[in-house]
Amino acid sequence: MSPLIASVFRTGLRAGLATLLGAGVLAGAQAQTLAPGVLKVGLEATYPPFESYDGDKIVGFDPDLTALLTREMKLKPALTDTKFVSLIPGLAAGQHDAVVSGLYITPERLAQADAIPYASSGALIMVAKDSKVHPKTEKDLCGLKVGLQAGTSWVKLLKNLSDDFCKGAGKGAITVMEFPTAPEVSQAMMARNVDAQLEIAGAAKMIVEKTKGRVTISSPDLVYPQTLGIYVKKGNTALKQSFESAMAAIRKTGEYDALIKKYELTPVK
Prior knowledge:
Blueprint: H1 3-31, E1 38-43, E2 46-47, E3 51-54, E4 57-59, H2 61-73, E5 76-81, H3 87-92, E6 98-99, H4 107-110, E7 113-128, E8 145-149, H5 154-166, E9 175-179, H6 182-190, E10 196-200, H7 201-210, E11 215-217, E12 223-233, H8 237-253, H9 255-262
Parallel strand pairs: 1-5, 1-6, 8-9, 8-10
Antiparallel strand pairs: 2-3, 3-4, 6-12, 7-10, 7-11, 7-12
Helix pairs in contact: 2-8, 2-9
């Protein structure tokens, strides 16, 4: 084979391999999600400012963030309103590709799914406007009935606090009462069925606003500050890496910081 023919052959071979590899990468990207070209996202749309309905459209921080990320991932977002307790199990069940719903990253959730950090926040304690109690920290919840959304990380945290601190200090146990949604907790509190409500800061401020002062925030500082995560099915490394690359891209454009500022959250490092 002459040098010229050999050179042409090698060039053609490289081009052919590049085409095949490119197709493989594209196929791999499509295989990451349940439907080619679509990212099915589970969230609970009763949780402003993270997600809630405006007419028939789901709006908030998580939908806004998802739109930016899927743009970088070259995927079309499909948001699915899902019960909070079904969000993480829905990944393994194949109901959605990812969960972007203001969920803290916890060891219990990481045992079931993989997570990508995307913001930081903490909780605030709320009481009814004319409440006789005004707990400022989690330790002030001893002896009170505290309403929580079922499945939140605070359920276990408050039960542990009750056992490890309250009872030993002779202050009375914390009675944890779980409800399907955060608004139902607020309604129970305004009806005096619970003494206090613990909710993520952004959502707590929205509850105060929507109840027109019937609910107030009693804690001056955040309680249980934690990191929020986007969850994907355990072992779906390709999708996890795609999210991480997209996060890096929107950080570079400044869009991530602008969104964090708009919704008064704390960025992750």
